[in-house]
Amino acid sequence: MASSDVHVRICEQEILKYDLEIKALIQDINECTGPQSKLTELNADVKKSFHNLRLRIQDLEQMAMEQDKESDKQTLISQVEGHKKQMLSNQTAWRKANLASKLSIDNMEKQALLNGADSTMRQRKMTKEGLAQTTSDITENLMSISRMMAQQVQQSEDTMTSLATSSRTVQETNEEFKTMTGTIQLGRKLITKYNRRELTDKLLIFLALALFLATVLYILKKRLFPFL
After folding, report:
1. Number of structural domains the chain divides into
2. Weakest-pLDDT range from 45-54, 69-78, 201-210
3. Residue 37 sits in which domain range?
4. What distance in Å separates the CA atoms of residue 141 and residue 115, rounded to the nearest whole number?
5. How far is the C-alpha of 186 from the C-alpha of 207, rounded, in Å?
6. Which residues form a coiled coil (predicted)?
7. What is the spatial distance between Cα 187 and Cα 196, in angstroms, rounded to a whole number?
8. Cα–Cα distances in Å, from 213 out to 55, 200, 210, 219, 221?
9. What is the mean pLDDT of residues 67-72?
10. How would you class 147 by CB atoms within 10 Å of its CB: exposed for 0-12, middle for 13-18, buried for 19 or more?
11. Is residue 225 situated within a structural domain?
12. Which of 43, 74, 78, 142 gets the most CB atoms within 10 Å of its CB?
């Protein structure tokens, strides 16, 4: 019995929740001024809540039929009838809210059409001076774009010229490096050759000096020691 009471209370709480959801959605529909897709979305939510509410009322009615005590059974049946009446009242309010919303949306669409017609009339009344000014503005914009494109072309030409100059400078520098390398190699060969010749000269001087000393010693020997 206690378990049954718990299920009954849970069912009644869910019925109350869906009832409040429906009332809030009906209020949103009543205040909806468009677009039509928004109204359609709200109505879909209402249908879903009504479906859930109807199922829970049926569950509560089934629980009433399963009560052991007649008094408990009658109490729940009375609550079920009250929920059904409340659901019918919500359905009536739902239909009225839809009518009010559709009327509001129709009025908004009519107003938009009227505003569009007024705007079209104002556009048709545009003066020749306005058209001339528009044409002048377009021409000025085109000329401005043309000048910008000319500047871009000039900048591109200057950049290409600068790149060509830089390329020539690099080539000239490379040629100078090659010339300097050749000069350095030639100088190295000359220094090596000079060093070799200097060594040869020193050797010849040394041999000449040795020959001279040998000659002097020979003369001194003959003069001082003729008997040897």
Report:
1. 1
2. 201-210
3. 1-110
4. 32
5. 32
6. 43-70
7. 14
8. 143, 20, 5, 10, 12
9. 87
10. exposed
11. no
12. 43
Query: pLDDT tens for residues 94-108?
Result: 999 999 999 988 888
- Which residues lie closer than 8 Å to 46 by C-beta, 6 or more apart? 22, 25, 26, 29, 94
pLDDT at 123: 63
Q: List CB contacts of 14: < 8 A, sequence separation 6 or more.
A: 52, 56
219/222 Cα distance (integer angstroms): 5
Give me the residue label for tokens 């509410």.
Answer: 53
Position of tokens 């529909």? 29
- pTM for the full predicted model: 0.48
Q: Residue 157 carries which DSSP code?
A: H
Residue 84, domain CATH: 1.20.58.400
Average pLDDT over all residues of the chain: 82
30 within domain boundaries: yes
